[in-house]
């Protein structure tokens, strides 16, 4: 019966915002088949210790959920509460999170950014795992990574100078097509003094082994260099 009383009280509180449109307490009592005297007796009671405890836990759960970036489910929230000295069961935490409509964000699947191209065999490895340079603009490395955003995946292509590890070119897009990689190259060549024939070293992804990328490398007077297959450290 107390659940019906709580429902009527909640609907009455919400209905205060829509004056004249929400049903009255008397109407709801009649629809739900509960007595007027019983409801008002329940309504006038002070909150029970159990109810106060639940409300206190809700505040702590909501604070933890927010502080951990909305990625913790009820098990991890329960573990944090226990670690803080709270005596509470996991199922109660689960119930309270449902009442608060707290749903943990699910991790996105791994995104593969390096897909080997078929024409990579003719391009040599000019770096041989030596990612140092004695002056700027002679040896560059590039790569593509991904960033999760609220709008979806964002792909970032970078060009780094091995001399001082400075990012001298970058491009961002919602795709991993070749123009993402060439856009980063163009920024590097436009904004920095690169020596003719400088090395541009990357992995063997299709973006870096495409014909369009090779043409751009030639146009910018660079020499392409590709790391060996299966070694993840070959772009620095």
UniProtKB/TrEMBL annotation:
InterPro entries from the UniProt entry: HTH-like_dom (IPR025948), Integrase_cat-core (IPR001584), RNaseH-like_sf (IPR012337), RNaseH_sf (IPR036397), Transpos_IS3 (IPR048020), Transposase_IS3/IS150/IS904 (IPR050900)
Any single GO BP term: DNA integration
Residue ranges annotated for the Integrase catalytic domain, each copy included: 132-236
Gene3D superfamilies: Ribonuclease H-like superfamily/Ribonuclease H (3.30.420.10)
GO molecular function: nucleic acid binding
Function: Involved in the transposition of the insertion sequence.
PANTHER family: TRANSPOSASE INSF FOR INSERTION SEQUENCE IS3B-RELATED, TRANSPOSASE INSO FOR INSERTION SEQUENCE ELEMENT IS911B-RELATED
Protein name (Swiss-Prot/TrEMBL): Transposase
């Amino acid at each position: 019966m107390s659940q019906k009383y709580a429902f009527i009280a909640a609907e009455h509180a919400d209905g205060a915002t829509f004056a004249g449109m929400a049903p009255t307490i008397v109407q709801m009592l009649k629809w739900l088949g509960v007595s007027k005297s019983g409801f008002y007796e329940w309504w006038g009671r002070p909150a029970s210790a159990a109810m106060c405890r639940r409300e206190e836990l809700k505040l702590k759960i909501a604070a933890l959920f927010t502080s951990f970036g909305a990625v913790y489910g009820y098990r991890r929230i329960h573990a944090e509460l226990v670690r803080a000295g709270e005596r509470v069961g996991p199922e109660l935490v689960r119930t309270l999170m449902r009442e608060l409509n707290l749903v943990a964000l699910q991790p996105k699947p791994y995104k593969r950014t390096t897909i080997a191209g078929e024409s990579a065999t003719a391009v040599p490895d000019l770096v041989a795992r030596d990612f140092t340079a004695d002056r700027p603009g002679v040896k560059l490395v590039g790569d593509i990574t991904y960033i999760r955003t609220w709008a979806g995946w964002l792909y970032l292509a970078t060009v780094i100078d091995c001399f001082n590890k400075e990012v001298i070119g970058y491009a961002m897009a919602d795709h991993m097509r070749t123009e993402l990689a060439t856009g980063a190259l163009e920024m590097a060549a436009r904004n920095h003094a690169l020596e003719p024939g400088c090395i541009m070293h990357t992995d063997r992804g299709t973006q870096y082994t495409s014909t369009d990328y090779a043409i751009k490398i030639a146009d910018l007077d660079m020499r392409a260099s590709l790391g060996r297959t299966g070694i993840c450290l070959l772009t620095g």
